[in-house]
Design brief:
The chain is mainly alpha-helical and 389 residues long. It is built from 14 helices and no strands. Among the domains are: 41 residues; 31 residues. The longest helix has 26 residues. This is DUF2157 domain-containing protein. Keywords: Membrane, Transmembrane, Transmembrane helix.
Length: 389
């Protein structure tokens, strides 16, 4: 299914991990250059600005090819112009395959053709459905994006797949079940929780590490979806917007106490769990969820003027931050305020980078001068690699 050479793909993963080790100070620049020289990888760009530039260039190239095809075929297909989006999608597939064969991965040019393919087929189905059907479009987008993720290891395609698949399920529940509107929040909670635990299981048994980032992204989005599915503000306003009549002020919803409790309890659970398990992504999500919970409460109950509320909130945040900094700044392990030498939590998912160092004979950067032992020979107190004493 994967179009790339798996050896080069695995080498790219190892080079990325070695780069993280170099940034953390575990290996030197010379060692990193040696690893890159010995392990040929794919043609990628880590600099987001460079990647955006190549994406714009790829978009211009893709649109130019589509425009040329349109000009050549518009005379013969004057009454069948609906076929052009399908042709554009096929062009995107061929372009993605060509760039993949040239080892372009996360480069920018390939992003333009992969995303253009998804957009073209989505627009094609929307035109065929006369822009009246949402379900066929979301289904096709979910299928195409899922194939793009599996074949090209494209991270944005994984995000599009999960959003489109979620939209497909939500729309189906709402449209085709009699009590769809009533059970939609609870269904989405169950769906998000199932996604989270499924992704955890997949990551635990993952053998192909290049799928890790995509699964991790879906796992993180499922946390956000779970919280938003039970957030009082989201549930109440979405219910009002889906009702046939228009409401200037949204009406109260059933089980309001449950959704209010959910709004404030779930972010705290996220926070506690992330600290216990050292899950940085969940920690950031918990902070955002806590902030949105207070916004949800203030949206309906303005207890204090906005300037007073912001001032008090800032003072409380400063006091809490100062307290934890004082408590954690001297700790060396566990939850600590010390800077993280490796910001990428996936750096040690594979130990191959360390094995490569020993396989190719990369020597340590610093050798303790006070050590009397000379490794590699047999010149000290025992038999060494040369067999002498």
């Amino acid at each position: 299914m994967i179009v790339f050479d798996k050896i080069k793909l695995e080498n790219s993963v190892l080079i990325e991990e070695a780069d993280s080790l170099k940034n953390a100070g575990f290996i030197s620049k010379e060692q990193l250059d040696f690893i890159k020289k010995e392990l040929p990888g794919l043609n990628s760009h880590k600099n987001i600005l460079v990647r955006i530039g190549f994406f714009l260039l790829g978009s211009f190239l893709y649109s130019s090819i589509c425009s040329a095809v349109s000009l050549l075929g518009i005379s013969g297909l004057d009454h069948y112009w609906e076929i052009f989006p399908f042709i554009f999608g096929i062009i995107g597939v061929f372009g993605s395959e060509f760039l993949a064969q040239k080892d372009y991965h996360n480069h920018g040019l390939d992003d333009a053709f992969v995303l253009g393919t998804i957009l073209s087929f989505g627009c094609a189905i929307a035109i065929v459905a006369d822009f009246n059907e949402v379900l066929p479009v979301s289904i096709i987008v979910a299928i195409i994006s899922f194939i793009m993720f599996l074949r090209y290891i494209h991270l944005v395609s994984a995000l599009i797949f999960y959003l489109a698949f979620t939209g497909t399920l939500g729309y189906s529940i709402f449209e085709y079940l009699e009590a769809g509107q009533a059970i939609l929040p609870f269904f989405m909670m169950f769906y998000a929780a199932s996604t989270y635990f499924s992704c955890r299981k997949l990551i635990a048994g993952l053998t192909e590490s290049y799928y890790y980032n995509g699964i991790l992204l879906i796992k993180s989005i499922s946390l956000i979806l779970f919280y938003l599915s039970g957030n009082y503000l989201i549930v109440r306003e979405l219910s009002a917007s889906l009702t046939a009549g228009y409401y200037e002020i949204s009406p109260e919803i059933p089980f309001a106490f449950f959704f209010w409790a959910f709004t404030f309890i779930v972010p705290v659970l996220y926070l506690v769990y992330s600290l216990q398990n050292k899950d940085r992504i969940m920690l950031w999500i918990s902070f955002l969820a806590i902030a949105f919970s207070f916004y949800s409460f203030r949206f309906y109950h303005s207890v204090l003027p906005i300037e007073v509320a912001l001032t008090l909130g800032g003072l409380i945040m400063f006091a809490v931050t100062f307290f934890f900094i004082r408590k954690l700044k001297t700790k060396e392990s566990g939850l600590t305020f010390k800077p993280d030498r490796i910001s990428n939590s996936n750096t040690f998912l594979n130990t191959e980078a360390l094995i490569i160092a020993s396989t190719f004979g990369i020597k340590p950067e610093v050798k303790p001068s006070e050590s009397p032992m000379e490794f590699g020979g047999g010149g000290f107190s025992g038999g060494g690699s040369e067999g002498s004493f």
